[in-house]
Amino acid sequence: MRDVAIIGVGMIPWGELWEDSLRTIWTRAAVAALEDAGVDTVDLITVGCMSSGLFVGQEHLASMVADQLGMPGVPASRVESACASGSLALRHAFAEVAAGLVDIALVTGVEKMTDVDGGAATYTLGTAADQEYESFHGITFPGLYAMMARVHMAHYGTTSRQMAAVSMKNHANGLLNPNAQYHLKVSIDDVLSSTPVAEPLHLLDCSPITDGAAALVIAPIDRARDLAGRRPVVRIAGSGMATDTIALADREDLSRLRAVELSAERAYAMAGKKPSDIHVAEVHDCFTIAEIMTTEALGFFGPGEGGPAAEKGWTALDGRIPVNPSGGLKSKGHPVGATGVAQVCEIVNQLRGEAGQRQVKDARVGLTQNMGGSGGSSIVHILEVV
Amino acid sequence: MLSPARAWREYPQRYRLEASRCTECGKISYPPRVVCPGCRGRQFETVTLSREGTVVTFTVVHVPPAGFEGQAPLILALVELKEGARTMVQLADVPDPSQVRIGMPVRLEFRKIAEEGEAGTIFYGHKAVPA
Hints:
- The complex is a heterodimer of chains A (386) and B (131).
- With 386 residues, chain A is an alpha/beta fold.
- Chain A folds into 2 domains: 4-117 and 210-228, Peroxisomal Thiolase, Chain A, domain 1; 138-206 and 237-385, 3-Layer(aba) Sandwich (Peroxisomal Thiolase, Chain A, domain 1), CATH 3.40.47.
- Chain A is built from 14 helices and 11 strands.
- A 9-stranded mixed sheet of chain A has the order 3-2-4-7-1-8-11-10-9, with helices on both faces. In chain A, strands 5-6 form a two-stranded antiparallel ribbon.
- With 131 residues, chain B is mostly beta strands.
- In chain B, 8% of the residues lie in helices and 43% in strands.
- Chain B has helices at 4-8, 11-16, and strands spanning 18-22, 28-29, 44-48, 52-61, 74-81, 86-91, 105-115, 122-130.
- In chain B, the strands form 2 sheets. In chain B, strands 4-5-6-8-7 form a 5-stranded mixed β-barrel. In chain B, strands 2-1-3 form a 3-stranded antiparallel sheet.
- Chain A binds chain B through residues 118-120, 122-123, 126, 130, 132-140, 142-143, 146-148, 150-151, 154, 195-201, 245, 247-250, 254, and chain B through 2, 6, 10, 30-31, 37, 56-69, 71, 74, 76, 78, 85-90, 97, 102, 113-114, 123, 125.
C-alpha cells in the first residue's frame, strides 16, 4: 500500500445559498481544491452526498459532477453513508490511490438542502433512520439524539448546561471561521432558553440545515512532496470505518456510540496512534450530545466525562484537546454529504498552520470523526504532518 | 409515507405484533428478520409479542416531520416489551409529558398513526399508553 497525502483543500462559504444550485456549489469547491493543489487533471472523482434525490431530485451525481468540471471521461463515483458520506468519499478514494489504481483523486462532498421546505428536509434527514420502524412513528433526527441524550443524562448525570457549553464553544469558534454559516456569539443561557426541538434538546443544541460543498485533492506521497513547495505535507495516517444497527431499538447501550468506538480503534491502530497523540479534532456535533458522546468514544475522555470536559473548557481552542475549531456542524453548518470532507479541510488547514485566527498551536496530528444517522455508521481519519 | 403495497406487506408485524424467534439461540427479532442478529441463524418461528413493556428512553418532539404536523408535540418512546424486543412507538394518552419517566410501565394499543390527506392511505400501528 502506498502512502497517501492530501495536497489540496477547497471550501466555500456555507449557508442558505438560495442563489446557487447543487452543481454550482459543488463545482466551486472542486475548483478551489484543484487550485490549492496546483493540479488541473485528476484520475478519479468521488462525491459524497446523502440525498440529492430527495433534496433536489437529481441522482447520477458521478456523471453530473465530472461533466460540470469539464472532465467527462474521468471515472467518478457517488457514495452514500447518510451524514458520513463525505468521509466515505475520502476513504474510497484513499483506497484507490493507496492501491495504485489511480494517482490523483478529487474527493468531494455536497448537499443542497434548502430547495425543499423545512418539513421535507426533516423528512429527508429522517430517511437515515429506519424508515419503516422509526420514522414511520414520527421520530425525527433531533428526537433520536434526544433519546440518547436522555439515557446519557440518566446514566452519567450529564446536564443540559454541559450540552449547552458545546454549542457556546462551537459558536465561539465559528466566529473565527469566515466560511461558517453562523457568526453568532451564543451563551449557555441562550441555548437553554431557545425553543425546544426534541426534549431535552433545544434549537441551539442542533446543527442547522445548510447548503454547502467541500473538496480535497489526494495523491501518492511522492507526488505530494513534489507539489508541496514550502508547505507541510499532510499524510493520511489512518482510516477506520464501522457500522452499528440502524435502529436505536436494536442497540443494547444507548449511552455509547459503538460505531464511533470501533472506527476510532481501527484508525488509531492503522496510524499507530493513541487518543493522547491527537492535537486537534473535528468531530460530528450534529447535536451537542453527539460531541459529548463522540469525544468519549474517541477516547479523549472516559465514559461520562465528555459533559464535564466541555463545561470546563477542555475542548476549547486553548484547551487540552481542541475539538471543532472550525465551529463544527453547529456553527459552520451541516450540509450532510459535505460535512466529512470539510472536517478534513479544517484539519489540513490546522496542520499546515493556515487556520488563521482559530489556529491550534503546534498541531501536527489531527483527527476527523464523521457519523451517519443516529450512529449507524462512523468514519475516523487521522492525519499527520510528515 | 408508505405506498399501499409497502404498508400492506407489513401488516403481520405492524397490526398483529408478529416477531421472529430464532430456533438456534432464541433471540426475538421485531420486525422479523431473515438472518438472526444474535447467532446468524436462519430458522425462525413466528411469535406474537405481548403488549406489556417499559419505557427505555423517550423524547417530546416539538418540530414534527412531514405528515405529523397536526400532532405536535409528539411523545416518542423506545419501549422494551416483556420478551426483550424493543420498539419505537408514540406514547399517547399522557396529559402531562413531564410525567414520563424511564422505566415507566406501558401497554401497546392499536391506533391510527398517520394519514395521507383526505383520500390517501390511513396508516395504523401501535402506540404505547400508560399501563
